[in-house]
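Board notes, transcribed. Complex of a protein with AR6.
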Amino acid sequence: MAHTWQEEIQSNSRLVLFRGDITKVAVDAIVNAANSSLLGGGGVDGAIHRAGGPAILEACQEIRARQGFCPTGEAVITTAGRLPAKYVIHTVGPVWQNGEMDEPEQLANCYQNSLKLAVENSAKTVAFPNISTGVYGYPKDKAAQVAIKTVRKFLAEDSFLEYVVFVVFDQENYDLYQRLLATK
Ligand code: AR6
């Protein structure tokens, strides 16, 4: 396993696959698979708040006070507290309901809105976890296809971002991403 995401950079690609813990990834912005309360939870959300410290929750509480709940597919940005990243972009993935509730569009919105927010905040390197594939139950293969397709489309129309890193935590997602990223 590589120790840093930079070791996984392939020539001619702005997409990087890295296996590890997103809280340790030094990019401009890491994305959090949050819930609409923005007030923390389990999984990667819990790990980010634990490792980043109370500054992240304070910033989330300010956003909550200003704009209320964060709708599914939308994203907000905060400090990354003590994390090596500069920012955390919190996005709310869809809960999988057999694909009958526009989950693919909502998941695509998560990736697209997060990247848009990154660019607006001059973040050139962005790391994503596998949004919705844990507690929210989105099938991993379907989620990986949406993630890769959406990020590729965004990068094709953008020249600001340098690298987008898919940070995978488990072997199944790693194998899926490796296979899908190998096909153009
Ligand atoms: N680094 C990278 N990926 C991780 C890490 C980590 N440290 N920890 C877990 N993952 P989940 P969701 C992976 O459940 O499905 C929370 O309670 C994990 O293996 O964190 O979007 C929120 O507050 C999985 O592939 O997020 C929400 O209520 C992926 O991250 C709800 O869970 C996402 O799993 C969101 O559910």
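The beta strands are 15-19, 29-34, 75-79, 87-92, 125-128, 163-168. The mean pLDDT is 96.
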